[in-house]
Amino acid sequence: MKSTVYTRAADFLAAAGAFLEQNEAANNLLLGLSNILVQKEQRGESTAGNLLYTVECGSGTPILAILLNSKNLILYCYGDDADTEAAVKMAIADIRQRGLEVPGVVGPVDAARSLALEWAAQMQLEPYVRMNQRIYLLDRVNEIPYAPGRLRQAGMQDHETAASWMYDFAESVNENMSRQEAANKALECLRDGSLYMWQDENGIPVSMTRKTRPTRNGIVLSFVYTPPEWRGKGYASSCVASLSQRLLDEGYRFCSLYTDLANPTSNHIYSVIGYRPVLDSVLYRFNRL
User: Fold this and answer.
1) Residue 182's CB: how many other CB atoms inside 10 A?
2) Residue 67 φ/ψ, nearest 5 degrees
3) Alpha carbons 36 and 34: distance in angstroms, whole number
4) Among the three residues 97, 123, 149, which one is the final residue of a domain in this structure?
5) Residues 123 and 116 sit within 8 Å (Cβ to Cβ)
6) What letter would DSSP give residue 250?
7) Which residues face 135 on adjacent strands?
8) pTM above the 0.90 mark?
9) Tens of pLDDT along 125-142?
10) DSSP characters for 116-181?
11) Which CATH number does the domain housing residue 61 bear?
């Protein structure tokens, strides 16, 4: 086996892109974040703090691809158990040699478990499952009843609402996000035109979602949130279905998204709209012993 560290995301995608695109929707996070890094490189911006890494088998084909940033180690691995174990141990040895930290692990269930357990054992940490996830794909929107109102792109006049909802969304999934971070994230989304809201028949915003992380053929929906007082009225379904259809109409072959398997309501909503499961994923975090 051979490991390679890439200083440029463009080189990483040249080496691992075809491997990851064999299951493009399942790898929307790895591919999407890598594409964002490529765009930063093209603008001359720094991408320091990101480790891009592959392990190849004897044929030169990657069996493990990793992006390590300040939040998580995101991985995809395809091989038998012995190859996976060997690739994981090689990756961890290289990461430790570089003095890097792994704050969390995201990836397919078996591969993520293998890496999280190995990292924890070597670093004397206790791994725990932060979230069991499912990745969905949609290439056709089902016919569903829409709530009264319409989808619209959020504008700067929505900044206060968007910031508040992003903070509440993060809190609902137990992610750490300060009020200021939420305000900054909302401003970023409004500036790049990625945030959408469903407004009711009175023009009141009642639900939101965001388009993000485009890949070669697809794009991701995230930040799906409806305040408690507006739930149960079909607003989230209408918001997600409408934006999904708009993105397909724009030329994307599919939309994808992550769900928390502990939330049966959202999983049911997405299935009704037309999203179907493609891969189960898991997010690990670590406690010190």
Assistant:
1) 20
2) -125, 120
3) 5
4) 123
5) no
6) T
7) 258, 279
8) yes
9) 999 999 999 999 999 999
10) HHHHHHHHTEEEEEEEEEEEEEESSPPP-PPPSSEEEE--GGGHHHHHHHHHHHHHHTT----HHH
11) 3.40.630
